[in-house]
Amino acid sequence: MITAQMVNELRTMTGAGMMDCKKALTETNGDMEAAVEFLRDKGIAKAAKKAGRIAAEGLANVYIDGNKAAIIEVNSETDFVSKNENFTSMVDEIGKAVVEGNVSNLEEALKAKTSEGTVEELIVAKTATIGEKLSLRRIEIRTKADDEVFGTYLHMGGKIAVLTVVKGANEEVAKDVAMQAAAMKPEYLNEESVPAERVEKEKKFLVEQAMEEGKPADIAEKMVAGRLKKFFKEICLVDQAFIKDGDIDVKTYVKNNGGSVLDMVRFEVGEGMEHRSENFADEVMSQLNN
Question: Which domains are delineated in the chain?
Answer without folding.
Answer: 4-50 (1.10.8.10), 57-165+276-288 (3.30.479.20)
